[in-house]
Design goal:
The complex is a heterodimer of chains A (290) and B (163).
Chain A lengths: L4 E4 L3 H11 L3 E4 L5 H6 L7 E4 L4 H4 L1 E3 L3 E5 L4 H5 L2 H6 L1 H9 L3 H4 L4 H7 L7 H6 L3 E6 L2 E6 L4 E3 L2 E2 L6 E8 L5 E8 L10 E9 L6 E9 L6 E2 L1 H7 L6 H14 L10 H24 L2
Parallel strand pairs in A: 1-3, 2-3
Antiparallel strand pairs in A: 4-5, 5-10, 6-7, 6-10, 8-9, 11-12, 12-13, 13-14
Helix pairs in contact in A: 10-11, 11-12
Chain B lengths: L1 E3 L5 E7 L2 E7 L5 H8 L18 E4 L2 E4 L12 E3 L13 H8 L9 H14 L5 H7 L11 H13 L2
Parallel strand pairs in B: 2-6
Antiparallel strand pairs in B: 2-3, 4-5, 4-6
Helix pairs in contact in B: 2-5
The chains are: A alpha+beta (290), B alpha+beta (163).
The complex binds flavin-adenine dinucleotide.
Chain lengths: 290, 163
């Protein structure tokens, strides 16, 4: 491994300056659970790692009236150990609780998960079905874009040179909202998803119809996939076994998985179908108790 | 802002097992390397060196981490507990260490320090975990010898004694 510097800036401007100074020769360090492994295995040849954990905006978690602002470097445990987040952001809590094991959750952030942009990332789809936006800064100032539009390919995202993710905005759910994330792995824990599905449901005030639904699929395409046809289909429907079945069929056909050692195409489509129904049912249960 | 040169070594001030230390390290060295090669604390083991096996688990400011996935430089001002800090003064074994011996919860021993550090953190947080909770908590620690049952039994034994 090429020896690199460790730099711990204390504000956003310092990070921007370092990114422009080092360019491709530096990477950002959140929890380090991807970047340290990648650096060690020679994927990057770096002059510096820039630690984001000494900056207020990237390390704070703010539960506001309108949204949860999740600093890009906030580790998973701070999500699932916060009762208010557990109650209101269940799909995101599901993901934070299953990334790696306890050791990984002490460090790994959803911001790092998003910026690493692997198709199998467990944290991205739940953010998408919670309608989250990514707050980005760069040489041209700040901007916010939907998390659903963040990833552009395996390991690729919309961050341009000199830009980085500061935080993620997750809107505060209304009552009647529920969400869930599940993945399939051959083991019980500590593995990479063969397929994963996040679902969210917003029920009408009387609880009888689906006002809005969102389904996002992990590990079955080059990026997380929004199952738009399922989302459209569910609007105005009654939550029922039949409507969920139909939505799951649509989600399976929205998936475009590859064949690899973790699973073939047919198996992954089947998984999407099953996981869509399961997560819709869990999301519904949570929506009804919220 | 701390900017640390890769060529020049740096001094990291941390507390290890309640002792203040100043260690001269390279900025790209992992916490695991800092502990073993610089502090001479070789109780913490290197297994996979990529976060999967948990053999290098240490407690960092009250949280268990894989020390291979932390930079030594990141631990400036922090408090670290390793396996060497677990037995009480005078060499009395920690109840978990005693239970591991009694239940024969180790064979080759490489994974044992990591398991002990992890299990201790669990019991400090939740004194009476059930079997499923223990298994889930220890999922980040791999053992290739015992088949896990003896390890789980040892932790359960201490948990029951906590009752
Ligand atoms: C043993 C093990 C098990 C794992 N299990 C899972 C799992 O079950 N599910 C899963 O999804 N992942 C898993 N991972 C992968 C990893 O833990 C996650 O992707 C994690 O969320 C990454 O977060 P981090 O904070 O550690 O990121 P880092 O490693 O710090 O960063 C990840 C990448 O994003 C960049 N980056 C970080 N922050 C920013 C920012 N704010 N702006 C721009 N770029 C940034 C970094 O430069 C790097 O390229 C596992 C990893 C290990 C080692």
């Amino acid at each position: 491994m090429h020896p690199f510097k460790y730099i711990a800036p204390e504000n956003i401007d310092q990070v921007l300056n370092l990114l422009s100074e080092y360019g491709e020769r530096a990477r950002l360090l959140a929890g380090g659970t991807d970047i340290l492994v990648q650096t060690r295995t020679g994927r990057f040849d770096l002059d510096a790692l820039i630690d984001l954990k000494h900056i207020a905006e990237t390390t704070k978690l703010i539960l506001g009236l309108e949204s949860l602002v999740l600093g890009a470097a906030v580790p998973c445990y701070q999500i699932y150990e916060n009762p208010e987040i557990v109650a209101n952001y269940p799909g995101i809590t599901d993901a934070a609780s299953l990334i790696g094991g306890i050791q990984i959750q002490s460090r790994a952030s959803l911001g790092g998960n998003l910026c690493n942009s692997t198709p199998s990332a467990d944290g991205i789809c739940p953010l998408i079905v919670h309608n989250s936006t990514a707050n980005i800064v760069g040489p041209n100032g700040p901007k916010s874009i939907p998390v659903a539009a963040f990833c552009t390919g395996p390991g690729k995202n919309i961050l341009a040179k000199g830009e980085f993710l500061v935080s993620i905005n997750i809107p505060t759910p209304k009552s009647g909202f529920g969400s869930a994330y599940e993945r399939f792995i051959p083991r019980n824990e500590m593995d990479i998803a063969v397929a994963g599905v996040a679902s969210s449901i917003q029920l009408s005030d009387d609880g009888n119809t689906i006002e809005a639904a969102r389904i996002a699929l992990a590990a079955v395409g080059p990026t997380p996939i929004v199952a738009e046809t399922s989302n459209q289909f569910l609007i105005g429907k009654q939550p029922s076994e039949e409507s969920f079945y139909e939505a799951a069929e649509l989600a399976a056909s929205a998936a475009s998985p590859i064949d690899d050692m973790r699973g073939d195409i047919e198996f992954r489509q089947k998984l999407v179908n099953v996981l869509t129904r399961r997560t819709l049912n869990t999301a519904l249960k949570r929506a009804r108790s919220n | 802002m701390t900017e640390i040169d890769s060529v020049s070594k740096i001094i990291v001030k941390t507390t290890i097992n309640q002792e203040n230390m100043e260690l001269l390290i390279s900025p790209h060295q992992s916490l695991l390397e800092m502990l073993r090669e610089v502090a001479g604390l070789t109780g913490t083991k290197e297994g996979c060196n990529d976060g999967n096996c948990g053999a290098c688990t240490v407690n960092l400011d009250g949280r268990i981490v894989d020390s291979c996935l932390v930079l030594g430089a990141e631990t400036e001002g922090k408090s670290i507990e390793t396996i060497e800090g677990i037995a009480k003064d005078g060499g009395n074994l920690h109840p978990l260490q005693q239970a591991f011996l009694e239940e024969a919860a180790l064979q080759c021993g490489i994974c044992t320090p990591g398991f002990l550090v992890s299990a201790k953190a669990l019991l400090e947080k939740e004194p009476n975990p059930d079997e499923q909770r223990i298994r889930l908590w220890l999922a980040g620690n791999l053992c290739r010898c015992t088949g896990y049952d003896k390890i789980i039994r040892a932790v359960q034994k201490v948990a029951e004694d906590n009752n």
